[in-house]
Design a protein that fits this description.
Layout (H helix, E strand, L loop, with lengths): L1 E3 L10 H28 L6 H30 L3 E3 H34 L4 H4 L2 H19 L1 H7 L16 H5 L7 H34 L4 H9 L2 H22 L6 H26 L1 H11 L1
Helix pairs in contact: 1-2, 1-11, 2-3, 2-11, 3-5, 3-6, 3-8, 3-10, 10-11, 11-12
């Protein structure tokens, strides 16, 4: 089967103009994350666990941007709205895998902040380069292993309920609803993925911050408490801009009959476009070492 992307429903005549902000979003996301990778690679004072995790996050964001860019720009620039099943399933695999990887990295970054605040003297001995690498690989392997069954389970199904997708790219719930075969296994496995990947990650992040706040309250000086909390603000903001749209889009798929196609399209774009763009900006503005490295590189 061949699927059709919907683009921005109701605004088809303005797609060429809409392509301008989308292009800007991609340029900012690509340039910002590439710049972060270069800074972490070249600046000696950024060779620390928290910046290694930030580099992993930048790699995941680059992958997400490059996964969605072909179909999105094809719609807005060339009015190409069709994609084959195999290409759709490939795009879906990379989007879901990289989303899971990003969730795992956000969890690793929460653990990094917990160790830095609760055990500052043992920070470098607990988070060695070897352990940081293993945590990144664990997030990658988990994402690949959990998401590999998604395209396999969809590939076995016939599609006969129309061909129009709700977004400018392929997502598992969106493709699954077009199948006319038995999808109970797909629904069950999708729910398992949400709970044991994103759900567990968010729960562990919340526990990490509960422990962090407990440790902060144990700091004697008010200045020390504010300084410790300030090191977490960037990560807290990124967690909310990542999990907020993810939760909203999950709920929307459960009540899709009550939501408009335009709401689906807008929320889907926020879910995948905003975090890759905002992550490097937030960390560049809030992290002193990165600001110093930027100033040094611009001299």
């Amino acid at each position: 089967p061949t699927f059709s992307f919907i683009g921005i429903p109701g605004l088809e005549a303005a797609h060429m103009w809409i392509s301008i902000p989308f292009c800007l979003l991609y340029l900012v996301a690509l340039a910002g994350n590439v710049l972060l990778l270069i800074l972490v690679r070249t600046e000696q004072n950024l060779h620390e666990p928290q910046f290694y995790f930030l580099a992993m996050l930048a790699l995941a964001d680059l992958g997400l941007s490059l996964s969605t860019m072909p179909s999105v720009l094809a719609i807005f620039w060339f009015d190409v709205h069709h994609i084959g099943l195999n290409a759709c399933l490939t795009q879906m695999f990379f989007i879901h895998t990289l989303s899971s990887v990003e969730s795992g990295i956000l969890l690793a970054m929460a653990f990094d902040r917990f160790v830095a605040i609760s055990h500052p003297l043992q920070y470098t001995t607990i988070l060695t380069n070897s352990r940081v690498t293993k945590m990144g690989l664990a997030a990658l392997l988990r994402g690949v292993m959990l998401m590999t069954p998604l395209p396999i389970l969809l590939k076995r199904l016939p599609f006969c309920k129309g061909q129009t997708l709700s977004y400018s790219y392929c997502l598992h719930p969106d493709v699954m609803k077009l199948a006319c075969g038995q999808v109970k296994i797909n629904i069950f496995y999708g729910l398992v993925l949400v709970v044991f990947s994103f759900g567990v990650d968010f729960l562990l992040i919340a526990i990490s911050y509960a422990l962090i706040f407990q440790a902060v309250l144990g700091i004697a000086s008010r200045e020390g408490q504010m300084k410790a909390l300030n090191t977490c603000l960037s990560h807290i903001f990124i967690v909310f801009i990542y999990y907020g749209p993810l939760l909203a889009i999950t709920v929307m798929h459960r009540v899709s009959h009550q939501s408009s196609p335009l709401a689906h399209a807008v929320l889907g774009n926020i879910y995948l476009f905003m975090p890759p763009m905002l992550n490097p900006i937030v960390y560049s503005l809030k992290t002193k070492q990165i600001r110093a490295a930027l100033r040094k590189s611009l001299k």
